[in-house]
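I am writing to request your help with a piece of structural work I have in hand. Thank you for your consideration; the sequence and its tokens are set out here:
=====
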Amino acid sequence: MIWEPMLAGDSRENIDRTLLDDPRVTSFWEPDRISGTWLAQQRLADFGDPVVWDAYYAFPAAAHWGARPDHVVAAGSPIIGATGALERDYVPLLATRTRR
């Protein structure tokens, strides 16, 4: 998970690391918004912002990135306030992954 300062009060100290309390989740603080700007430039999904934030992307387990990510199977924004879409997009992917 990449955290960027997008709203007043956003800071490394204010990250709620319990939001995704799972040992597979690693949080990164990215104060210069480089990753969000780069993701917006890749046009993987049109979130209408010059910086991607409060968004998610899902890729198939076998995905390998070259110069840019590809094979997006789900993307959405915002996450906060729209967790139903996140659940709708991710739960089937998890079910497919566990059946293999």
User: Anything to note?
Assistant: Residues 59 and 72 are 5 Å apart (CA to CA). The chain is about 25% helix and 10% strand.
